[in-house]
Specification:
Elements: H1 6-22, E1 27-31, H2 36-45, E2 50-54, H3 63-78, E3 86-90, H4 96-108, E4 111-115, E5 129-133, H5 137-146, H6 153-157, E6 164-168
Parallel strand pairs: 1-2, 1-3, 3-4
Antiparallel strand pairs: 5-6
Helix pairs in contact: 1-2, 3-4
């Protein structure tokens, strides 16, 4: 996800977590943005049903938190009757160890929602889909370029609160090669 105000991002994270908890799913939020409202809402509204972990200022996930994430989410992966676990990442910086952990979790069936800190974090091939929220003119042009101009700057500027544009970044076609 790209764009939106701090409140928009918090509302999206808390809303996703609340829906997951209501359906008896496991939620883990790793928050490098450390928006105070997000922490308060996770701790008060969800009261232990969802796990919230503020990350260090660097935004990187320390090794001990990688183990915590694996332990927490593995409970949701082993329970067949429950929804797949949900991992919410808010402005988390990538490193090779964390990328391997994410690949493992995705292959195991976890759902990962990544709130990206900037359009440069939208690496082609890593994400299938991106949700673009309302933003200012400078950021709208950068977001439009990041998604290959599949959505125009004017369209992003016209978004209202609570609206977004879902962009599929890549499509796969099955073709038969001539013999």
């Amino acid at each position: 996800m790209l764009g939106g105000t701090a409140s928009d991002k918090t509302a999206l994270c808390v809303g996703l977590a609340l829906r997951q908890v209501q359906q008896q799913g496991i939620v883990l939020c790793l928050d490098a943005r450390r928006h105070r409202q997000a922490e308060v809402q996770f701790r008060l509204l969800l009261r232990g049903s969802a796990h919230y972990v503020p990350l260090p200022a660097s935004g990187e996930v320390p090794a001990e938190l990688v183990q915590t994430a694996l332990r927490t989410l593995s409970r949701g992966l082993t329970q067949a009757a429950v929804r797949p676990p949900l991992l919410l990442l808010d402005s988390v910086r990538e490193n090779p160890d964390w990328e391997r952990t994410l690949a493992f979790l995705l292959n195991a069936g976890a759902v990962v929602v990544d709130l990206l800190p900037s359009p440069t974090a939208l690496v082609f091939g890593r994400y299938d889909t991106v949700l673009l929220l309302r933003t200012d003119a400078d950021a709208a042009d950068a977001y439009s370029r990041a998604v290959g101009r599949k959505i125009g700057t004017a369209e992003l500027l016209d978004l209202k609160a609570g609206e977004g544009v879902l962009v599929h970044l890549a499509r796969v076609y099955r073709v038969a090669l001539p013999q």
